[in-house]
Request: fold
Amino acid sequence: MRIDLHSHSTASDGTDSPAELVRTAAAAGLDVIALTDHDTTRGHAEALAALPEGLTLVTGAELSCRVDGISMHMLAYLFDPEEPALLAERELVRDDRVPRAKGMIAKLNALGVPVTWEQVSRIAGDGSVGRPHVASALVELGVVPTVGDAFTPEWLADGGRAFVEKHETDPFEAIRLIKGAGGVAVFAHPAAAKRGRTVPESAIAGMAAAGLDGIEVDHMDHDADARARLRGLAKELGLLVTGSSDYHGSRKTCVLGEYTTDPEVYGEITRRATGAFPVPGTGGA
Reply:
C-alpha cells in the first residue's frame, strides 16, 4: 500500500480543489490519502463525493499551534468534525487569519511592496487565507521568484519584516482537544528548520507524555540526518513514525506520494481513532 497522510486543497492553501486532489492521488498510484487542510474540514465533503474507486480518504486537519514562542503544526486525523470544543478552537484560529493577512499586507506596503488585500483575497479564493497566499502575491509582483523565497527573515518567516502573529493553539491543548474528538495527533514536520525555530526535543517528550501519537519523520523539509534523529526520538518516546508529501499542488515542488507512511503505522492510526473512520472510494463524481 502507498499511503500519503498530509495534503492540502483549495479549502486552505493548496491549488487543487478537493475533487482534483483525490483524482490526482489516485492517478499517482496512492491507496490512501489524508486531506489535512489548515484549521478546516471544509474540503472533506467534496473530496468524499469525488473519491475514486480504489482510493481511501483519511479525513483530518492541520492545526496551527505555538509553544514557547515557536510556531508548529499538529496533524489531527479521523476526529469527529462536529465535536464542539475542537470545532470552536478551529473556528477561533481560522477567524484570525483575515486580520493577520491584512496586517502582513500593511507591513509589506510600508516596505514599499504594492500588494493589496484584493490581490491576496483573489489568490486565496474560498480557502482559509494564510501566508502562502501572501507569498503567492509577492511572486505575482516579481518581488520573489518562488513562494518558498518569501519565507525568509526579509519577508514572511517567523519574526520576519512582514510577519504578523495569529492566534495559535497550545499544542498540549490541541492534543487534548483532538483526543476528546476521537482523533489521532501527529506533530507535523518537527525538524523543518528552514521554516524558523524548531520545537526542542524536551517539549516533544512532554507532548508524548500528554498523549501525542506520532511525529512526521519522512518529509521534504527533513534531510537524512534529521530523519535519522527523529526516528531515534520516536523509538525512545514510543511514538508512531509517519511520512507524507505535504502536497500543496503547484504552490510547492513536492508531489503526492513523495514520502509515504508504513501500512502498519496507518493501521495503528485507524485502530486508535474513534471519531471518524477511513472512507473507501466507490467511483466518485
Remarks:
- The longest helix spans residues 97-110.
- The beta strands are 3-4, 32-35, 56-67, 70-77, 184-187, 214-218, 240-243, 279-280.
- The first strand starts at residue 3 and ends at 4.
